[in-house]
Amino acid sequence: MDFKRHSTYLFMLRMMTLVSGAVTSMIVARTLGPEGKGVIDLVMLLPQFVSSLGSMGVQASAIYFAGRGFSHRNLVQTVFGLGLAFSALHILLVWIFKDEVAGVMRKGGEHKWVILSVAMIPFYLLWKYSDCLLQGMFRFGAYTSLQMASLIFRLVGVILFLLALGFGLAYGVWIYVLSALIPAVVSMVLSWVFSKRSEKKASTKEILKYGFQVHWGNLAQRGNLELDRFIINPLLGTAAVGLYGISVLMGQLAVQVSGAVSQVLFPKVAKEGKDALDDTCFLSRSSIAISVAGSAGLALVGWYLIRWVFGEEFAPSYKPMLWLLPGIVMSSMGMVLSQYLAGIGKPNLNSIASVIALLVNIPALLFLIPKYDISGAAIATTIAYTIQAGIIAFYFARETSKGPSAFMLATPADVARFWQLGMSLLKRRPGK
């Protein structure tokens, strides 16, 4: 496995995500305002959130078993079969609880947008599965290419239809929808094309068993990531969702490196086991240092950047961003260490941390949002992120006998090593 090359792919993707995401959000914000941006956020969040609720952790199983050399073709068949079954169950459950779903989206959520969101659930679920299959097969080039194509499609669409032609909200929604549906279909096809046959097959029971250890933690993690916006909407309205979305987008600037290396680390640990421990500690230390530096930079220039890029009416997004930054620094460590625990076959430890964080996050959101508006949501999220990262660090230390300094405190040698790694990535052309 070429860790440098795959990290390069993902880092390029994350940087492109940042740039295109910022430009796209700026255009949407300036042409449709906070209300329109809030509607688009909710339309796209609903299928992502609901599909995560019923994914049963199969996406993690796809990476884990593919990385360990099990038959790719068998995995694709089993995973897609489970995806279709879960999709049908999702739609049934949404129909049963349609009044509750409509209630969550009632501010700015017209009936037609709710229907569209529900229809996207199977595509999001199968896209999630097929993307993870590609990662488990170490087809990071195909994976990143599809993600980039989605970003480019969305960016070109909003420039043409919203900015140049001045079309309204409906066009904005459909641009976002198609930028997800098209690469989802292509990803499914490629995961089948790249799959290889092998005598070593993972049974449905094994896939579900490993996946369930991950799934209940994923449910809690998804709640920690997105529940804040679903609570903000009925309490404060879709305009507040739009403002808070910018706060989150800005805060994510500080964790792109951590996200890229942790995404490659999972299949690496699944393949190498505890031999990847030293690399994990190095990446954790480096991620914390980089996110601290990035957060400090955002604190200094974020006020001006938000007003310049998104407009004066999004200035209230700055204060919640500040409250998010401490939690984002902690999450940069948690992202790396959690991949090691999952890779050595103990994803249940990450799940415990996510559930405990969610149990703190929900009452904190309900208490702090009415008192401090979207800043309250940011404070609650930071508390949850910090608790989650702390518990993951505890389990990591217990499983590896490593003290906190081994995975938290960067050294001068780390700086030199990371600089060398960065230079090698810049010199290397993807695919070489």
From TrEMBL:
GO cellular component: a single term: plasma membrane
Main location: membrane
Organism the protein comes from: Eiseniibacteriota bacterium
Signal peptide annotation: none
This protein's UniProt keywords: Cell membrane, Membrane, Transmembrane, Transmembrane helix
Regions that span the bilayer: 12-33, 45-67, 79-97, 109-127, 148-167, 173-195, 230-255, 288-310, 322-342, 348-369, 376-397
Keyword Membrane: yes
Compartments where found: Cell membrane
The keyword Transmembrane helix is annotated on this UniProt entry: yes
Official protein name in the record: Oligosaccharide flippase family protein
Annotated membrane topology: Multi-pass membrane protein
